[in-house]
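Archive transcription. Copying these from loose printouts into the bound notebook so they stop getting lost. Printout 1 of 2:
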Amino acid sequence: MLLYNRISNFKLKKIIFKKNEERKILSFYKYFFINDPLSLRDNIYILFNALDILGRIYISHEGINAQISVPCYFYNIIKFFLYKLNPKLKDLYINLAIEHKKNAFWVLKVIHKKNILNDNIQNFNFLKFNIIGKYLNASQVNKMIDSKNTILIDIRNYYEYEIGHFNNAIIFKSSRNFREQMSMLLCNLKKYQDKNIILYCTGGIRCEKATSWLIFNNFKNIFHIKGGIIGYINDAKKNNLPIEFKGKNFVFDNRMAESVTTDIISRCYQCNNFYDIHTNCKNNYCHLLFIQCPLCKEKYYNCCSKKCKNIYLK
């Protein structure tokens, strides 16, 4: 039985664009102990492949993390199929994307990993501790973030933050990934221990671990946004609430970002003009993800510097 994709990305792109079907983009995660992640991995691949679902799913002993593109006619039954795979997925919270585009995913990848989210903390068993921060909906977030007694922490990478974020949110600019953020949380937030601390990320998976780590280390008033930025935007729109998040929401698929507001809060790395679309440096020894306007893209041949441009053109 086929358990892996064997068609090239080039052919898959052509197949997707030839189809006229509408698709919805979903994301979900759940932390729970999986006794046999390899078996669940294979079962999910067989099921999702049969339903023409594309995307990226990580499976480990600590749970599941997925970003997928689903044909619209399967959208309403996806929860039923997931529950059949494992009863602990019965109450799964599913985020519906802010923007739906056919180019989000070309292929189905279901990958077995050591962790669905690596925290690199040795003395902390997240699944056994099983205590997380309090969830907030959009209304609660809007009421709390303007308070002097509230600190808002963006637990994403800086390249995500720079194109869109909540006003006054704190970001650890020097951190390169979630592992480094987790190691920096305690010392950076110690001075705010007497305040309400709200953490947020794209869909919630990073915050769930981070809030648990803070509580494990005796922080008291810890909150996180239900469904992350995506959940907040959808909840605010549904209830006709003001949207306090400005700019774009960075996403890890071919769309790169979802428009939330018309604000452009980031600038081109090279000319400093306002712009908000990332480029991946063409130099194979670099591949820096950075913001580059069309004029600089042409001038530098999609490279981040003259040095990378010269290497690329050799």
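Printout 2 of 2:
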Amino acid sequence: MKKQHQSVLLYCVLFLIWFFIPYTSVEGADRNDKINYPAYMQGIDYGNGPIYVIGHRPPDSDSVCTAIAYANLKRKLGINAEARITSAINAETAYALKYFDFQEPPLLDNAASKNIILVDHNSFAQAVSGMDKANILEIIDHHNFIGDVKTAAPAYYRNLPIGCTSTIVWLEYREANVPIEKGMAGMMLSAILSDTDNLQSTTTTDLDRQAAADLVKKANVKDRTAYFLAMEEEFAAYRNMSDKDVFYSDYKEFTVNGISYGCATVVALTPEKRQALEQRLGDWVMKNFNTQKMDMLFLKIHDLETYSATISCYGPGSVGCAAKAFATVDGNKIILGKNISRKKVVRLLQPQIEKWAATQGK
């Protein structure tokens, strides 16, 4: 009987070892744990390439820097991948590229018939033209499922509820046991700091913080906050930009129940500059709303000194929807105690817009 109990105990121990060994922690990923990463994609026909890795339009630092880093990882794994952009990059991204000595990726203005990996979006509305006729092989994203993307064959789709797409790519480098070189670390770090407001955003997770801590060392960035503020100072200067250019510098469009709406995000360095931008861009939207071909427009502005933010609302029903989603209303403006990410803004707005659309017979 004693031997039988010993055998049962041995089998239990062996089972636990078998069960937990494959799930190595992120902390231990730098060990020589050889994970056959390409096996994840054995069902995907990458062909001879090239495979274009591309973010949303207009591009921000997450979509550009993540495309660069993920294309590099694919090349390390034997896949002919190249980063592309949808349109001109903003000043923040240009600063990051120059700092880490990267060239701006080439423009891809039409994705039709191309082999594509989407990063940082999952919607044709935010994609470059022709994406509905592209061969989409993978999607790497951290947004909610609002997309209408369809694929002819099963695709690799990785979506995590975290602050930045580059955090997923950082995780994939580690899972694949591919060393992260200084430049690639700088690209991923820049994206994470941008998307999480230097890890201050409400969408920031422990995984984002862990990635940033690792990438700061690998990128040899001595002062993370100083580097972040240098990026933001470039971005918030809005040099030689018209009101329209500033409004659309970080902008995304969505459609729900027949209602189209756009969300713009603008950054200021101080509360005073935030208030000046609210007035300046508010005047422009009021004059030009009817030409923008959207049912609703939302303008979120926050400053980096206090992290306070406002959301200005334009279009029938917009103020009511935002008031139900958030809190204090001042005219056509929602006053937020602290800045929240656009991702969370959209997540809170969407159900209210759905309800409003139902009352309009949409």
